[in-house]
Amino acid sequence: MNSEYNGQVASCVKDSLIGFVAGIYGGIAVVCVSQPLDTVKVKMQAFPEHYKNSWLCLKKTWLKDGLSRGLYAGTVPALVANMADNAVVFCALPFCQRMVSWATKTGGTEHLSTSQHALSGSLAGIFTALVLCPTELVKCKMQAFHDMAELGRINLSPSASGPYQITKQILHSEGLRGLYRGFAPTLGREMIGYFFFFGGYEAARSVLTPRGRVKDDLGPLATAVAGGFGGAA
Q1: Is residue 108 domain-shared with residue 134, that is, in the same domain?
Q2: Are the beta carbons of 42 and 140 closer than 8 angstroms?
Q3: Rounded distance between C-alpha atoms, residue 219 and residue 127, angstroms
Q4: Distance from CA of residue 94 to its chain's centroid?
Q5: Taking a C-beta distance cutoff of 8 angstroms, is the pair 118, 202 a contact?
Q6: Same structural domain for residues 189 and 133?
Q7: Helix crossing, 75-104 with 114-150: angle to 10°?
Q8: Pairwise CA distance, residues 174 & 169, whole Å
């Protein structure tokens, strides 16, 4: 009994470590591709009167601030956030799956239903919210910095727009509590988002798995399609 328990613990730790490393690389890929679009989204949300549409926002940001200080502003905290988000969620997921399997008495994670996989993802979202809230706050402040300075809403020098300086300013003025401003909606977003993400992902895998085969037999392309479906959900 003891050796069986130790084997389960070792398997869970192994799966968590694999998920952690894979999540880091996945987070890097996400930022490289999506950071300019995320910058446009934040700018349009923060300054709707300044940008009429997303194309105009993209064009103005590119011409005014360039690539590194414009479209890729906030990349460092975005990298930290996405690497941490993906690493934490895929590290916590095996533990959450085993916890759901134990609570529902399914006899192993391989027997979890789509809804149970969705619940496991939702529970993993609790851990990601703890990591994401501070890093996303800093990222959004960096993305909006130049527009706020241009509109006269702040009087900070460009040297104060880095991730370290902004974090230091928040801690100095509001303390640790300031970094976790908006934690409740972040927690709700992560739990709900990952519920539908992993639910959609597992549902897509079930549909794409040929009759007589198992989900783990799916190739990289089918798995990527399932991941895209989960993201859309």
Answers
A1: yes
A2: yes
A3: 29
A4: 17
A5: yes
A6: no
A7: 160
A8: 8
Residue type, 167: T
Q: Looking up tokens 């300019």, which residue turns up?
A: 36
What pLDDT shows up at residue 122? Answer: 95
Residue 47 lies in a domain: yes
Residue partners of 91: CB distance under 8 A and separation at least 6 = 16, 17, 19, 20, 23
* Residue with the two structure tokens 């194309």: 55
Q: What is the pLDDT of residues 160-217, one digit of tens each?
A: 667 788 888 888 888 888 889 889 999 999 999 999 999 999 999 888 888 888 887 7
Residue 123 reports pLDDT greater than 90: yes
Put simply, whether the predicted model's pTM sits higher than 0.70 gets the answer yes
DSSP 72-119: TTTHHHHHHHHHHHHHHHHHHHHHHHHHHHHHHT-SSGGG--HHHHHH
Q: Domain of 192?
A: 182-232
Q: What are phi and psi of 29, to 5 degrees?
A: -60, -40
